[in-house]
Automatic annotation (TrEMBL):
This is Flagellar basal-body rod protein FlgF. Residues 113-174 form the Flagellar hook protein FlgE/F/G-like D1 domain. Keywords: Bacterial flagellum, Cell projection, Cilium, Flagellum. GO terms for biological process: bacterial-type flagellum-dependent swarming motility. It comes from the Bacteria. One of its GO terms (cellular component) is bacterial-type flagellum basal body. PANTHER family: FLAGELLAR BASAL-BODY ROD PROTEIN FLGG, FLAGELLAR PROTEIN. InterPro entries: Flag_bb_rod_N (IPR001444), Flagellar_basal_body_rod_CS (IPR019776), Flagellar_FlgE/F/G (IPR020013), Flg_bb/hook_C_dom (IPR010930), FlgE/F/G-like (IPR037925), LlgE_F_G-like_D1 (IPR053967). Residues 5-35 form the Flagellar basal body rod protein N-terminal domain. Residues 219-261 form the Flagellar basal-body/hook protein C-terminal domain. Belongs to the flagella basal body rod proteins family. Its main location: other. It is found in: Bacterial flagellum basal body.
Amino acid sequence: MLRGLYGAASGMITQQRQQEALSNNIANANTPGYKADQTAIRAFPELLIQQSGGNTIPTTQGGFNIPLSRQLGGMNTGVYVQETIPHFAQGDINESGLPTDVAIEQGNVPDENGAIFFAVQNEDGDVRYTRNGNFTIDAEGFLVTNQGYYVLDEDGNNIQTDGTIETITPEGVIPTTGGDVTIGMQYAADANTLTKEGNDLFEGDAEAVPADAAYVLHQGALEQSNVNTEQAMTDMMNAYRLFESNQRVLRVYDESLGKAVTEVGRLG
């Protein structure tokens, strides 16, 4: 019975974490470049149930016992959320009309899970990656994200715009008084290994975009979130129903344990 309690409780915890991931997706449905989180749910290792017993064979010496064992099958001991993985499908590209906004339209890449990102510098000076091209120009004339992180060029330096941007080519070239500057683009061969850090930033291993990876930058446009709000709402309802089902099972086990303690104990 206690094993049933653990199974129902693990189901409730799993659906709660599923709800949290879906709620976060819906909350960021209008965040440019946001990549929806997907939860990977796995079962705990199964137990193999066996029936143990024996047969007694009559003999002149009074009988001979032969031990027997028969496999009954497997029994699952519960589920858990193994990990949360961002889904890097391309989002829709919508015009914003702002010259500092840039959207990545990713084409064919050499790796199945490959993805292309902007390179930015966080508050600690570390390089991070983002698909959110909602850029602006700070008081010193540097190109920054809407959270204030410096956008880096192809050499890893901050981009000085002289206070204004008129043109960004599809390759990411920005003409300035000091010469042309190219927005630094990075490529993750397996984007699933990247970790979400918050503020639309990803941490992990990336490199310069290989020659056989295709992409185009669109000035005055933003890549939208790839969250499917209708599907997310449907998944939330399913997770809520599963949570309630496990809750009812847990309540039944609790009532049964209560009777075992009170009624069976009274009979003794």
